[in-house]
Design a protein that fits this description.
With 218 residues, the protein is of the alpha+beta class. It has 2 domains: 8-84, no CATH class; 88-215, Beta Barrel (Lipocalin). The chain contains 3 helices and 8 strands, in the order H-H-H-E-E-E-E-E-E-E-E. It has an 8-stranded antiparallel β-barrel with strand order 1-2-3-4-5-6-7-8. A hairpin with a 5-residue loop joins strand 3 (124-130) and strand 4. Pfam families: Cap15_CD_rec. Residues 86-215 form the CD-NTase-associated protein domain. Keywords: Membrane, Transmembrane, Transmembrane helix. This is CD-NTase-associated protein 15 domain-containing protein.
């Protein structure tokens, strides 16, 4: 539902062109002149069909960006769509990252993080940051999908992380990935899964761990 379509700009242009040509053909076939087709009549029909096609595309764009929220936020239908069709994950999520990295005392690192999700029918964007300000992450690829075998929704993403002022044992830049299961309960929706990075891999200190998140307003 929220997959980022490849070459979206080209698809829009092709859709507008196809719609205009299709409507032009209908106008020619259903118009007067006994169905006689000429370049002049085709040009007039195309001029008439083009704004109609553009209005149609504009309506689709509005529905895809904002209009769909009307259905997902409706009292009963919204709950059904959230559970059965696709979960609405828009908003801020707070949670904890439990890492296999150990500090000087031998304790596993735990970080509080905030995840911001912006989604519509055309795209899906994420931003992740640690609340202590030590690290920021930029998601470069993400996907929301449903496992056809179990019907479970998953959120997976690849990210680039930066540490502005790293400690001596840390790296300033590294990459990673995560796969989170979307658990929909009666009370709330939870994101839970694992992540792994190539952080300090040259020194054999790759990091991995568990992520658990809940909606900020829940």
């Amino acid at each position: 539902m929220w997959r980022v379509f490849p070459k979206l700009g080209l698809l829009k242009v092709l859709l507008v062109t196809f719609s205009a040509l299709f409507l032009s053909a209908l106008i020619l076939l259903l118009g007067p002149d006994d169905g006689a087709i000429s370049w002049d009549s085709f040009g007039d029909a195309f001029k008439l069909a083009t704004p109609i096609a553009l209005i149609f595309i504009a309506i689709i764009f509005v529905i895809g960006r904002w209009g769909w929220l009307v259905f997902w936020k409706s009292p009963f239908l919204g709950e059904v769509l959230h559970k059965a069709v696709c979960p609405n994950l828009n908003g801020k999520w707070l949670g904890e990252v439990h890492s296999n990295y150990t500090d000087e005392s031998g304790n596993n690192a735990v970080k509080e993080v905030e995840l911001t999700i912006k989604a519509d029918l055309f795209g899906f964007n994420l931003a992740l940051r640690s609340l202590d300000g030590y690290q920021e992450s930029k998601v470069i690829q993400s996907e929301l999908y449903r496992d056809p075998r179990s019907g479970t929704f998953y959120l997976s993403y690849i990210f680039e992380a930066s540490v502005p002022v790293p400690e001596e044992t840390d790296d300033r830049l590294f990459e990673g990935a995560a796969k989170l299961e979307i658990i929909i309960n009666e009370a709330d929706t939870v994101l839970k899964g694992t992540y792994w990075t190539n952080r300090a891999w040259q020194r054999g200190m790759n990091t991995a761990g568990l992520i658990t998140m809940k909606k900020k307003n829940s």
